[in-house]
Amino acid sequence: MVDTTGKKQQHGFQPGQSGNPAGRPKGSRNKLGEKFLAALCDDFGEHGVNAGAK
């Protein structure tokens, strides 16, 4: 058995390069979070502390 403790693994990607060049569009994950929080805020404003108890 070869001891590889402490050696950095090489993945074949250059710095700043992704394995998925098409990737996720910038901001798409943030848009979902913003929409969810806005809906939760609206629901809380309408139903108070019982907003999530549907």
Give a short summary of the structure.
Helices cover 37% and strands 0% of the residues. The protein is built from 1 helix and no strands.
Question: What is this structure's SSE topology?
Answer:
Layout: H1 28-47
Structure description:
- This protein starts with 27 loop residues before the first helix and ends in a 7-residue tail after the last helix.
- It contains 1 helix and no strands.
- With 54 residues, it is mostly helical.
- The protein has one helix at residues 28-47.
Approximate strand percentage? under 5%
C-alpha end-to-end distance = 57 Å
- Which blocks of ≥5 consecutive residues have pLDDT under 50? none
Helix content: 25-40%
Count up the helices.
1
Mean pLDDT: 76
Q: Summarize the helix and strand pattern as letters.
A: H
Global Rg: 22 Å
Shape: elongated
User: Count of DSSP E strands?
Assistant: 0
Main sheet: strands, sense, barrel? none
Structural class: mainly alpha
